[in-house]
Amino acid sequence: MVAMPRTAAAEAPPATYMRIADTLAQRLARRQPGALVESENELAAMFGVNRLTARAALEELERRYAVRRTKGRGTFVARRFDYRIGPDRTPSWTVTVREAGGRPRTENDRVRLVRPPIWARRELGLGEDGRAYHLQRRRWVDENLATYSSSFVSPEVVPGFERRMGVESSLHDVLTDFYELAPQRAWSRCEFEVASPAVAKQLGLRGRDLVSVVRGRLDCESSGRRIEASVAYARMDVLNIVYEFGVGAGEVRR
Amino acid sequence: MVAMPRTAAAEAPPATYMRIADTLAQRLARRQPGALVESENELAAMFGVNRLTARAALEELERRYAVRRTKGRGTFVARRFDYRIGPDRTPSWTVTVREAGGRPRTENDRVRLVRPPIWARRELGLGEDGRAYHLQRRRWVDENLATYSSSFVSPEVVPGFERRMGVESSLHDVLTDFYELAPQRAWSRCEFEVASPAVAKQLGLRGRDLVSVVRGRLDCESSGRRIEASVAYARMDVLNIVYEFGVGAGEVRR
DNA sequence: GCGATGGGCTTATCTAGACAAGAAGGATCC
DNA sequence: GGATCCTTCTTGTCTAGATAAGCCCATCGC
Known about the structure:
The structure is a homodimer. The first copy, chain A, is of the alpha+beta class. Chain A contains 8 helices and 12 strands. In chain A, a hairpin with a 2-residue loop joins strand 7 (132-141) and strand 8. At the A-B interface, strand 9, strand 10 and strand 12 of A face strand 9, strand 10 and strand 12 of B. Strand 9 of chain A pairs antiparallel with strand 12 of chain B. Chain B binds a DNA duplex through residues 3, 6, 9, 12, 15-17, 39-41, 49-53, 55-56, 58, 69-75, 206.
C-alpha cells in the first residue's frame, strides 16, 4: 500500500481560525455595514478557542476587507464602495457616493503656489524654476476617510486659481465655470502600492497597507494645454477601485 | 501641567515587529528575487525577540508582497511583475514576462464543448441551450503560477476550435492564423476580489487571499461578431496588474 | 541503481498569560 | 454646569511553550 501521493493529496482540513472566519463572514453579510462585531473575547468564548485564535479569524476578515478594527473601540462590519473609473468615465465623487447610499464629503487644503516636484513639472511642461498651484484634497464616505490626492495646477492656464478654489470647491466645476475650460483626461494609470509612511499618515493607516494609486493628467480638450497633474491614493478598505472601458463593462455582474 | 493632548498626540513608537519588518524590507531590497530569507528562529535570535514577533514581521512583509512563504521550505524574496493592460494594450504574456527577465509558460486544458454559465451565454448572445468551447488556461512566471483564466469561445465564429487549440497554443495566434480574424477587446473590467474557494484552489492559494480579476469580451474587429467571453484571475503576489490609458501613461515613473 | 525511511529543518497553528494603549462613559470635584 | 479623573472595555503587542505538517536530503535496504 503506497502512502498518500503528493499530487492528489487529500485536502488538509482548514485551520480553526479559518473556519471561524468563514462562519463569521457568512453571518456578517447579513448585518448592516457599520454594525459592531463581537469582541475578541466574546468570539473566543463563543467558539471555545483562545483569544488569539479568534483574533486570527478577525485579522483574516480584515485582510478580506470584510471588517474594520479600531483599537479601543472594536470591530465593525466594513462598507466598501465601488468607484468605477476609465477612459470614458470621470465620475463625480459626490454623485457616486450618494447613489450608493453614503454621505460624501470633500475637503481641500488651501491652495498655494509652490515649486512642484520633478514629475509634476515634467507633466505640466514647466522648467526648473516653474511654479504651480498645489491642491491637496481629502474625500470621505460617511465618517471614513477614503482618499487623499495631491495635484499641481498650471498657473498659466488658470491664473488666480488660489482665489477661486475654496475649501469645498470642485476642481471640475471651477475649471468649467470660472475658466470656461473643457478638462479631459490625457492619460491615467491605476495600480496598487504599499503606502509610504507619508501617505499612510495622510490616510490614517496604522501600518503600511496596500493602497490604490491613480495618477494622471488633465488637459484642455480644445487647446490641448496641460491643466493638472495629479496622484490620488485610496484606502482599499473603504473604496474598491474598478477600472473599465468599452460598452457593456458596466453591465457585468459579480 | 496638562496631559498629552489627544489631537496632537505624539506618534506612538512603532511596534517591534513593524520595526523589524521595515529593517528587513530594506535589506531584502538588495537581495536577488527568490533568495532564501532567514528563518523565523534565526530572525528571532538576530533581533532578540520571540519567534512569534519575528513571524509577525514576516507576515507584515507578506502582506506587502515583499516575501513569499511556503510551509516546510522557508521564506523567499518575492518577485512581482508589472502587467500593464488597457484599451490600447493587449500585451502578450510571453513577451511581457520575457522582457522583464522571467521565464514564461502557458498551459491550456483540453478544449471542450460545454453549456456555458449564464454570464457567458449572455455575452456571446447564446440561447438557453447554446453551447460554447470552454478554454481554461494557466500561466506561469518561472516556477510560479500567476494566473488562471476561464473563457468561452463561440463555436459559430470558430468552428472546429477544439482541434486547433493545443496545450501550448496562443488564443490570439489561433484566431488570426487559422480563422483570419482580427480580435479586439469589446470591453474590459478590472478589479479585486476575495478568491472564492474554487479560484483559490486553481491558483494554489492557501487562504482566501485577494486576487486581481479581469473580465472582458473579444469581438471581431470587422464584423463585430462576438468571439470570446473571459474571466482571468491573477495572484497578486506574482503579478502587479496596472491599468492605464492615454499617451504618456507608460512614461510614468514610480 | 533505486526506492523507502526517517531525521531535521521549515512554516502553520494553537494555547495561556500578561501588559500597553486607545476609547467611551460615568463619577467626582470645583 | 463643566472640566477632569477613573474605571472598564476594546484592540494591539509580546512572551513562552507546544504540536502539527510540509519539504529536503541523507541514509538504509534491497
